[in-house]
Amino acid sequence: MSRRLRTYKDTRGEGELFRRRALAGFGLILLGLFALVGRYVFLQVLHHDEFATRSVNNSVKPRAIPPARGLIYDRNGVLLADNIPAFRLEVRPEQVQHMNQMLADLGQVIPLDQDDLDAFHKQLKQSRRFDSVPLKMRLTEDDIARFAVNRWRFPGVDVVPYLTRYYPLGPLFAHVVGYVSRIDADDLENLDQDRYKGTTHIGRTGLERSYEDMLHGTPGYELDEVNADGRVQRVLETHPPVPGKNLYLSIDARVQKAVEDAFESRPGSAVAIDPRNGQVLAMVSVPSFDSNLFVNGIGSADYKSLITSPDKPLINRALRAAFPPGSTVKPFMGLAGLEYGVRTPQDTVLSTGVFYIPGQSRGYRDDLRYGNGTVNLYKAIYASVNTYFYKLALDLGIDRISEFMGSYGFGHPSGVDLPGEVSGILPSREWKAKHSPKERNWYPGETVIAGIGQGYWSVTTMQLAHALATFAGRGVPYAPRVVMATADVGKSPAPLANSPTGPSLIKNMKDWEAVNEGMQLVIYSNDPQSTGFGTKLGEGFPYRIAGKSGTAERFSRTSNAYNENKNTAYLAARHRAWFEAFTPAEDPRIAVAVVLEAGAWGAKDAGPIARKILDTWLTTQGGAVPPHQPLQESGVAAASSAQAPPAPEDTPQTDMPAPDSSTAGDDAQ
């Protein structure tokens, strides 16, 4: 039997252990108390201002205030682009639990079409949940009233006032001023986020795009006190935005309207430039469109109608439609011959109706079957004699032709302050080598037809107007400019400098005078062979006019037979009708280029449009509109119709071989 050991309780040791544990526990409690007091000091004393601000920020929300976009005026202060007050419906996604259901319910209160919903969903994907997203633009008063009654049903949805862009003259300046539209995902990747806070629109085309930096301005912001639902209770602080600059154009709205009316809805374009400073006085592209359609999102039906229209109204024909210039390049060719010393004004060429390159049997025709006889520079210009310029082109050579024409702006953009200008085509060895790798050789026949504005040639109306303005300004080149001044809000307009881009291109002013005289004879010559004979384009006008017509072929000849079909509709379907003019001839102040995409003859069809531009311009200078008699059906005066040969009217090249067989300009659109 084992023996149990008796144990005794150590009361003294347990008491000592308890005291040590109690002291340790008390120390931990005291340490925690000190830490808590220290934290209170840190929060309430040392960082009181910081955390007080954070607390206030829980109920204060910053809101960006977009700047008012700068306005656009014509040269006389006629408003072309305005900002008008409107209301839109916005949604804050973070406050909407069931978006699709909310949209369906909201559609019962305010009509939402599919275009509204598509634009909203697209922008919703690009925005943060706490950003307001526009749902419907330009609410009517009825829309606002119905929503006000039902507002409690739609948390996160609100009516917001804003300024929307409006173009009072609509289609008249659509291609010049352009339009703004909503900012999309591609824009957000490239924009300065700070500068565009709160902004919903950006310049998309025309001056709205090229002068976006000036027009936009700088955003401001305000601090709003909001309740638990995010509703603004009061505005605590406001920092106003800086509005964009206003633009003043060199274009006169009266001239612009007269030009558009003169086209009578026929597709084409016209540009007028002041040779003294490069200011664009008019720029019209017909047909046009209403730029207001695009501001807040164009409907699918309207957009489809525009892009499927056979007349392509969205294309700015003055900058983007390039066609063979035809006989309008002949004055420049004549000047090149004088400047290079290849010709004098008195040198003559015999025009027999057909020109042959030495050693070749292929003939290049004049417009008149039996030619124009002996012609010098003056008659070569006013009668538009092909043979003179065939031989001149051959004597100059394509290298000197391309060098000279390039100096006047052909073959590259003019530099006008508008986006989207195309380069056109200036015939040259380099151009052919680059674009025709299978056939790099340059042939004499290509030089010959380049001398009359056919073949590879392709120019825009702006390019031709720029080249003509440079010539009219005695060779001093200016880049064309549409905006002539800018102004901050409440301040006077400040002119924009536009210095010449170089010295005069003309070596001898007698050369300029000779070509100028030949162009005046186009308007005033009594020779029935003159392309302007019988059109009365200069009749009654107080200043001398210098001009040149051009009838550019759209198709190559397919046989050696002369085309005897003189039906106007038939010829209009085959020709581009050009006319260029400047006045006063001795001291030019306006240079004009006009093209009709379907015109039988340059002087007869495009000439009256140019004259209308000059008439209207004259009224803006304080003069009266001169009387202008209607054109005769024929280029031959009635009194001499029995004896005189038919007028050549610009020498269209129906019979000319073209390197690109059919349409040098048709695909430019």
Automatic annotation (TrEMBL):
The active site is at residue 327. Residues 65-235 form the Penicillin-binding protein dimerisation domain. Residues 621-669 are annotated as: Disordered. Keywords: Carboxypeptidase, Cell inner membrane, Cell membrane, Cell shape, Cell wall biogenesis/degradation, Hydrolase, Membrane, Peptidoglycan synthesis, Protease, Transmembrane, Transmembrane helix. Its EC number is 3.4.16.4. It catalyses: Preferential cleavage: (Ac)2-L-Lys-D-Ala-|-D-Ala. Also transpeptidation of peptidyl-alanyl moieties that are N-acyl substituents of D-alanine. It is found in: Cell inner membrane; Cell membrane; Membrane. It comes from the Bacteria. The chain crosses the membrane at residues 21-42. GO terms for molecular function: serine-type D-Ala-D-Ala carboxypeptidase activity. Pathway: Cell wall biogenesis; peptidoglycan biosynthesis. Residues 660-669 have a biased composition (Polar residues). The keyword NAD does not apply. Catalyzes cross-linking of the peptidoglycan cell wall. Belongs to the transpeptidase family. MrdA subfamily. This is Peptidoglycan D,D-transpeptidase MrdA. It comes from Dyella humi. The lineage of its organism: Bacteria, Pseudomonadati, Pseudomonadota, Gammaproteobacteria, Lysobacterales.
